Amino acid sequence: MKLVRFLMKLKSETVTVELKNGTKVHGTVILVDYSMNIHMRGVKMTYKGQNPVHVDFMSVRGSTVRYVILPDSLNLDALLIDYSMRPRGGAGVSGKQGSRRLAGSRGRGQGRGGRSLSGRGMRG
């Protein structure tokens, strides 16, 4: 399971996020998007070595996150179960591999062009 998919399951959990610049952000997760941006409410933000600042809503850019500190009461076993796991490839019900190809589609490396006498690879 990818880290982002795990963090998306933390909706309505209270977490502490430590940023790369040393700032700590403590609040309730509203949403985590695919870029790992974390949107929070009821935030207490503490700059490194300064007094905390209270903010109603805050969004943290995913690339600035160093750690996400989870609460001790969180049931990790339930969150780590990934229901979206599907078998990939292999012989399915049809009995042949690669049956996902659409009818009339070209194979690998067949290009888009039609047949011409002056195209690439033609001698003439």
Automatic annotation (TrEMBL):
GO cellular component: nuclear lumen; ribonucleoprotein complex
Matches recorded under SUPFAM superfamilies: Sm-like ribonucleoproteins
Name of the featured protein: Small nuclear ribonucleoprotein Sm D1
Family named by the database record: Belongs to the snRNP core protein family.
InterPro entries: LSm4/Sm_D1/D3, LSM_dom_sf, Sm, Sm_D1, Sm_dom_euk/arc
Compositionally biased residues, Gly residues: 106-116
Sm domain: residues covered: 2-74
Gene Ontology molecular function, alphabetical: RNA binding
Role this protein plays: Essential for pre-mRNA splicing. Implicated in the formation of stable, biologically active snRNP structures. Involved in splicing regulation. Facilitates post-transcriptional gene silencing (PTGS) by limiting the degradation of transgene aberrant RNAs by the RNA quality control (RQC) machinery, thus favoring their entry into cytoplasmic siRNA bodies where they can trigger PTGS. Does not participate in the production of small RNAs.
UniProt subcellular location: Nucleus
Keywords in alphabetical order: mRNA processing, mRNA splicing, Nucleus, Repeat, Ribonucleoprotein
Chain segments carrying region Disordered: 87-124
GO biological process: regulation of gene expression; spliceosomal snRNP assembly
Signal peptide positions (record): none
A UniProt-annotated Pfam family: LSM
